Every structure is written in C-alpha cells, then in structure tokens.
Amino acid sequence: MKLKNLLKLSCLVLLCFVVLPAMAQNKTVTGKVTDAKDGSPLPGVTVSLKGTTTGTNTDAAGAFSLSVPASATTLEAAFLGYTKQEVTITGSPLNIKLVSSSTSLNEVVVVGVGYGSQRKKDVTGAVESISSKDFNQGIVINPLSQIQGKVAGLNITQQGGNPNSQDAGISIRGQTSITGNQSPLFVIDGVATSGNSQFQNLSPDDIESYDVLKDASATSIYGSRGANGVIIVTTKKGRTGRTTVDYSGYVGISNQAKYYDLLNAADYSKAIEAIPGVTPSTYEKGGNVDWQRAISRSAVTHSNNIAISGGSNGFNYRGSVNYQLQEGTIINNQKKQLGLRFNAEQKALDDKLDITLNFSNTTVYRDQLTDGGVIANYIFNAPPTYPIYNPDGSYNTFVDFNLANPLEHLLETYSRETSYQTLANTTVNYNLLPSLKVGVTGILIHDNTLTHYFQPSFPGEGNINNAAQNSYNNNTYEANAHIDFNKSFGKHNISATAVYEYNDFYTESFSASGQNYTTPELLDNNLGSGDQSKNVINSSKDDYKIISFLARVNYNYDNRFYVTASIRRDGSDKFGANHQWGTFPAVDLAYRLKRDLLQNVDWVDDLKLRLGYGVVGNSSALNVYQNVTLYGTGTRYFDGSAASNQYPVSYTYLQNANPDLQWEERQGKNIGLDFSLFNNRLSGDINYYNDKTSKMIYQYGVPTPPFFVNTIYANIGALTNKGLEVALTGQILRGSGLTWTANGQITFNKTKVVNLSGTYQGFPVASDQIVTGSASGRGLSSSPITYLKPGQPADVFYLTHYTGVDANGNELFDGKTLDQNPNPNKYYIDPNPKFNYGISNSFGYKNWNLSFFLRGVYGQKIFNNTLLDYETITRLPSNNVTKAALTNGIKDGLHVSDLWLENASYLRLDNASLGYTFKNIKGISNMRIYVAGNNLFVITKYKGLDPEFAPNSHYTDGNGSLQSYPKSRGFVLGANVSFK
Predict the structure, then answer these.
(1) The pLDDT value given to residue 201
(2) Which H or E element spans position 288?
(3) Residue 959's pLDDT is what?
(4) Among 14, 353, 429, 881, which residue carries the largest CB count within 10 Å?
(5) How many whole angstroms from its chain centre is CA 445?
(6) CA dist., res. 119 & res. 556, Å (int)
(7) What is the per-residue DSSP string for 121-153?
(8) What start and end residues bound the annotated signal peptide (predicted)?
(9) Do the Cβ atoms of 426 and 356 come closer than 8 Å?
(10) Digit-coded pLDDT (tens) for 486-506
C-alpha cells in the first residue's frame, strides 16, 4: 500500500515537472553587469527574477540573457562581495552596476536556520556557516573532513585511517548525556537523517555549504533530535541558464604515518640472550620480520564526480554520479562507493507553486579489517625472528596466547559488508497570499546493511571454519505540514513558522552463524551445512515514534532590534506513560549597534550583540522498551546429573519498570557578538555559553527489595558545559595582485559532572561514580581508570602517582613499592583539552592559489595502554616489546599509574594545496588543477601512533589496538573542470 501511494505521488510530481512549464508565456531580457567603481565586467553574477529561482549567470564578458514571464517587472543581481541590487525591467538590454560590499554581515549571505533561512545580519542564534571555498582540501572521502577544525565549538575527531570507519567523534559544545548519542543532527536538504552514516556516505563534491547551529535557542527548532546541535547540509543545485557539466576528481597515495619502535631481529636476539634460564634457540626461527610493515602497504585512493545541471522557465535541476575507491594502508582492507544524486525544483502558477524533489542512492562495499584488536595484538606479540612463510611457501604457523601469524589471518579471513542507503524527499509549497505560504514535506530514509564473514581453520587455534551473516534494516518515515508568514509594516518586519512533524523509526536485524563447515569454498553461503549444534540465530525488531508541534516568530525593527521566540512540544513513546510529552521554549534577542550607537564610527562596519536562552529535550539515552518491566531466561534447573542441559530454563525479572521516565533536558544560555571592522579587513564572532543537562538517564543502582532487580533507568544526573568560542577572519592582503586571507578559531570548553544521585518513589537512587574507561593487559584483567564523578570533569582519571623504580626494578608509587604500601594513594587528573584551535591561510596570485590548514589541541592527556602493555621487558621472550622496554628499568610487570598518562597536546598540518586555474579555454568555462597533501606533520610529545582521540574513547589508547587503525599520510593530484 505504501509503495502504491509512493508511486502515485511520484507520478504527480513528474506530471507537474512536465506540464506546468508550458503554462507560462515568456519574454527575453538581456543585459550586462559591471563593477560600479571601474566598469570591469563581472562574470558569474546571479541574475534572477525577484522572488523566484528563475535566473542565470553572467558569462566571461558580464553578459546575460534570461527568459521571464511577460508580466515580470523586477530582476535581482547578486554576487559575493557585492551588495544585492534590484533592477526594474524597463527595456533590453539592461546595464547593471554592482557596488562592492564593505561588510561581512551583508544581505547576500544567507544562513540556514532550520525550516527556512535568514540573512546573516538577521540571525539571532549562535550559527556559523562554511561555504565550499573554505573546505579542507586533499583526500576527502568522508565529508566530515571538509569542515574538521573549521568551526568553533564543533569537535570532530577521526581516529586512525581505516577507510571503513564510521565512528568519528562528533560533538558540539561538549558532552550532553551519560549514555545518549553525543552527535549533532545532520539535516541534508531538509531531510533530518536518522544516522551519521547517511551523511558520511554523501559525496563531498555534492556539498555546497554547512550551517552549524550551536546553542539551544538555535537548535530548539528541531526539538529532541537537535539536542546535541544541528548541522544543516546544503547540496549543490541547478541554476536557470545554459546546461553545465562539472567534473571533479583526484588520485592519491597514502602510507602509514608512524610506527611503534619495536625490537628488530638483532635487538630481540640480543635481549633474550641476556634473560636467565631462556634457551635462545627456542625462539630463533631464522626470520627478520617487521610485522607492522609486513601488513601495511602504499594505498591508492581515487574519487570521481560528474554532475549535469541547468534549467529554464522556472525549472532547474542537478544530477550527479560519483565513484570512490579508497584502499586502506592495512592489506585486504578497502572501501568502494557508488552514489547517485538528483534534485529538481519547479515553479509555476506565477511562481505561487513551488515543488522540490531530492533523491539520493548510495551503495558502499567494504572489505573490512577483520579481528582488528586480535590482529593488532598478534602484530605486537609476534617475535621478529619468526618468518612469515615456510621454505615451501606455506604460511609459518605459530600459536600461543595472543600469538599467531597476523599476515595469514588478514589475507585468509573473508569479511565484507555492503550498505544500501536511499534518501528521498518531496516538498510542495503554495503561496496563498504574498505573505502567506503553506506546504507539506514527505521523507523516506532506507538504510540496509548486510555483512558476510568466514574464517577458515587455522592450525593449532581450535576454530574450525566459522561463518556468519548479519542483516540490519533501518527505515525512517517522516512528514511535516508547515505554514510560513512574512510581512513588513514600515520599519517592522515579522516572519512566523508553524510546523507539525511526524517521525516513525523502524529497525530490524537478523544474524546467523555456525561452525565446522566441510566445504570452505562456500564461505558463508550455506550456513545450514555445518555442525547443527553450533548454529546460532538471533533477530530483533523495534519501532518508535516522535510527534512534534512547533512555532517560531522572528521580529525585527528597522534592521536594528531583533527578537526570535519559539516553542516546541515533543512526544515519544519511548518514555513512561506519565511523561511522554515535553515542552521546550527558546528566545533570542539581538541588537545591531552600528545602526544606532556606532553609526558614526567609520572603522566599525557592523556590530551585533546577541543574547539567547533555550531548552531542548533529548531521548537518545533511552532505547525502546527500557521503561517497562522485562522478563527473560535465567539459569537452568540443576540436580547434579549429567543431563542437566535437558532441564528447562528458569525465568526471572531482567528490568524494573519506570513509568515516570521523562526527557533529558538541556538548558542553554548564550551571549554572542558578531562584528566586521576596518572595511571588512577583520570580521568574526565571539560566543560565551553556559549549558546544563539535567534529568540524565542512566541505569542507576536501587535496593532489592522493594525492586525486582538492583538497577533501574531513572532521570537523576546532571552536568554542565561552559565555554568560550572565538572565530576570526582577516583579509590581510586584497586587490588585483597578491591576496592573503587568514581564518582562525579557538574553543574553550569545560564539562563538569554535577550530580549522580537522587530518589525514586522515596528510595535512594544513586551512582557515586560511573566507570567510563579501563586499562587492560596481561595479568591486569580490567582496571577502571576514568570516571564520571560528581564535582569532577567528565572522564576524570583516578590513578596512582609513579615516582620511579628501586634498585631491583620495582616501581615506586609516592616513593614506595607495592610490597611496602599495597594500596597507594590515587589522584584525580583531568585529561580534557584546555582548548582546541584551527588556523587556515589562503593566498592568491593571478591564476595561482595556495592554502594550508593547521589544527591543534592543547592540554589533552591520553593513557597509553599500548605502551603499558608493550614497553615491559617481562613480555620477553615469547613476545616482542618496544626498544624503550630495555632501558626504562622496570622489571616487575604491569602496573596502572600516571606513568602512562601522557601529554597529548598536538599541532597538525592537516592539509595543504597548491592549484592553478586555466582561463579562456574553448568549450571550458573553468579548469583548476591542484596538488594537495593530508596529515603532513604532527608536533606532539605523545609516544603513541597519533594523539587524535575522540572524547568517547575516554582518552585511553586501547590494549595493543593500534588505535583501531594507524593514521595515514597522503598526497593527491586532482582537477575540477566545468564544461560550457
């Protein structure tokens, strides 16, 4: 039924695209656009019919030709850096002269604010925009790389260099929940996505701009889904005029950026000869292998994107296809992606009717890095004297605890994943009156992932042909109805929006696995043919809804005084019956001082003061069905007989019900200042914020009885985020010769845990502290080291203090060995950065352009669990160690302390590019050739592979995990070509 309705809607939309253009009678207007100061022609100026998307661009001589309805009276000419101008159609040709704009808060810049857009000068919330000309360059497969380090308050960390990784850390203004999703909401052309992968699989070449909504008053328009901030992604659209074909692509090569300094064969042999009681010949196998380099390679990456765009008579379109291949620097690991994207807009009925369609389909093929943590252990553990192959060419098999041939495991294990993602939305708007517009939007998101796994029998390891398949489906259905009102009364300007939203989130999964397959060539394609007693089948399904009502009013007086107020009511069936609905208000005030107090101050171009307060709800910390009583299987009844497994299982309570579960709430206060000074030589914004998250959901401890089990999901905890953001842009040199523009941002954020205890139904509900991270290693089991602790920063470390070693190599903690003091004092240590920053510089000279971007973190600390495990001489002779293990003097095994908590501040040359633009080529309107590099150098004291760690890793480098995947350094050669 849904498919039938969808087909009907598609036919209706296509009918509108085909029939409606024929309903208009047009005339042709021609003209030329020049600079008002020197009369030079301006190519690339957008000339459009006022109030519509009907338009064209001027050619190299500044000329244009535009077909408009016979009744049309006014054109608009807009060009970045110039003031938008309205022109009355008095005849043809027209001579349009544009005046250079002296303010960065000019009317040409339009910012997405959710359910609409505003001129930058009218924005009242903390919103920052990044356009395509400011994107990071180089190997950019994941679009997150385009804006990493560019936006104050937006923290993006991409650990390692695995092309298949989708676990990048993304947060805006710090931690917002204990267990809830920390990532902002991505909105792509009006589609509020249901997962970050839908954005991260978008082709970077299709993106036009980003608008980052940071404070609660700005994000409140998206309610609970925008509780962690909102990133509005606008893709490239077609423009009325000549059909344009654009190509962008590059080819690059990457290598692992850094390796651990492990013992080579000679150092290893010498070290084990010095160990009493060890027979060196037992470990001398004739090899000389650097296992880190044995599994790595020079990886090739290439990306290709072709787009066709154009339009006429109120219709515009753009379609693109992209193909990407990114090899990993670890063998047998790569990502291939094929994406299709199409968008179109049709205006009709004298531009009263506006229909837009956006459609994208992406298929991603992943050859995974299998057994990531185990293989990393194998790499570290394998002695360098063990060869890869036997003399007959077969794999050299060596097996022990965490010891095996890593190359054999990587090459012989089959692990692949295929993802299919579809995003489609259609919006129909109709202007009932010049100031009143109504519309509806329908959205479909389909996300399917299928994984295949087969591990053959490895001699001596006990496993016998393991195979598995997993399928995961995530379908989201969204719809909204909206009303927009815009009206000006003299100096009074008012706009209002009212929206009804419906969101249905549906997921299901299925998995099957087995062992002992007699025909390994079948891989995972006959799961029922193995040992029936080893078969395992699992499945799940859940469905929840969010329904919302919202209203927003914007008012400004004389473009000087601004007020924005909104209220949103969200309902979700994930919560208890008593609190499914929440109401969340927001208000912003702004005052442009330049229009009043500073109107006679020449060096101030514009200055705007903003104040904002808002409340948003958050439901991401709660999974479906966590508010109700759950029952499940317990232990089997047992009478001591050998056939005990034949007895039925018992059933018991698994979860307490809590009908009073309600929304987490984030209250945010923001004060901001936007400015443009010295004829736009210096511009930027400054924001101070103070946010508090309360009613945090967590599985807190409760007494039994009266409760069935000793935990319950409850709204108890609270934390705060306070911070300062500064973003600056300086036009250091500008003119017809050498140009130099510098941008920089710096963010200070402090997260503090306020409370983790309270009462529920009169009973204490509390967690004195919550463990967030642990250290591990041989003989350590798992030792908690980071916590959420009331009164302390988030992820605070709690460690003993290392002070050296005694004459026997025993570690000293506060001057004593563990024999002298088995329970040494522990101290709280804050690992969080003092600040994050990014600095970019762009130079232009004639047809040349050069840019580079530096990004850094100051004050961060990381627990180097890898070195705790492998900078330890006691691992010899059965495993390898770092060279420092031979000289650090420690001989008593593994002990967790602040010795391994390292200063991880860093400054990275993230990317640099040099390009040349060719002009006046017949048949080509623009062509740029460039070379670029990524991760060119890192300055840091951190001894691990790379100091970039996402906060959700709790500042702990995993046990021998190579940080999941080593970081790479890459170089590319690329081109951007537009054909006319």
Answers:
(1) 85
(2) none
(3) 46
(4) 881
(5) 18
(6) 12
(7) GG--S-EEEEEGGGS--SS-SSTHHHHTTTSTT
(8) 1-24
(9) yes
(10) 998 888 999 999 999 999 999
- Please state, in angstroms and rounded to a whole number, the distance separating the CA atoms of residues 816 and 876: 26
Residue 188 CB neighbours (<10 A): 22
552-587 confidence digits (pLDDT tens): 999 999 889 999 999 999 999 888 778 899 999 999
Q: Find where tokens 């442009």 sit.
A: 592
From CA 167, how far away is CA 877, in angstroms rounded? 36
> What's the token pair of residue 757?
């205890």
Q: Where are the domains of the chain?
A: 24-98, 110-243, 244-529+547-626+661-979
Cα 464-465-470 angle, rounded to 5 deg: 130
For the segment 659-694, what is each residue's pLDDT rounded down to a tens digit? 888 999 999 999 999 999 998 899 999 999 999 999
What DSSP letter does each residue of 357-420 carry, written as one string?
A: EEEEEEEEEEE--TTHHHHHHHHHHS-TTS-SB-TTSSB----BTTBS-HHHHHHH-EEEEEEE
| Contact call for residues 345 and 310 (beta carbons, < 8 A) | no
Per-residue HEC secondary structure of 194-241 comes to CCHHHHHCCCHHHEEEEEEECCHHHHHHHHHHHCCCEEEEEECCCCCE
Residue 293, SS3 per DSSP:
helix
Cis peptide, bond prior to residue 387, ω within 30 of zero: no
Strand 436-455 and strand 466-489: the pairing is antiparallel
Q: What percent of the chain has pLDDT over 90?
A: 52
Strand partners, 279: none
**Nearest by Cα to 228 from 805, 920, 691:** 691
Contacts of 358 (CB under 8 A, 6+ apart): 188, 189, 190, 191, 235, 342, 343, 423, 424, 425, 426
In angstroms, the CA 965 to CA 379 distance is: 12
How many angstroms separate the Cα of 433 from the Cα of each of 268, 389, 491, 551? 83, 79, 21, 20
The CATH number for 244-529+547-626+661-979, chosen from 2.40.170.20, 3.30.700.20, 1.10.10.10, 2.130.10.10, is 2.40.170.20
> How many alpha carbons fall within 13 Å on the CB side of residue 779?
11
Question: What does R_g of the chain's alpha carbons equal in angstroms?
Answer: 31
Question: Whole-angstrom Cα distance, residue 481 to residue 499?
Answer: 6
Identify the residue whose tokens are 């203004």: 173
Tokens 């790499």 correspond to 379
Tell me the C-alpha distance between 511 and 473, whole Å.
Answer: 12
Q: With contact defined as beta carbons under 8 Å apart, do 725 and 686 qualify?
A: yes
* Rounded alpha-carbon distances, angstroms, from residue 494 to 217, 343, 436, 563, 591: 18, 31, 12, 10, 16
> Do the domains 244-529+547-626+661-979 and 24-98 match in fold?
no
Pick the CATH number of 24-98 from 2.60.40.1120, 3.40.225.10, 3.40.50.1860, 2.40.50.140: 2.60.40.1120
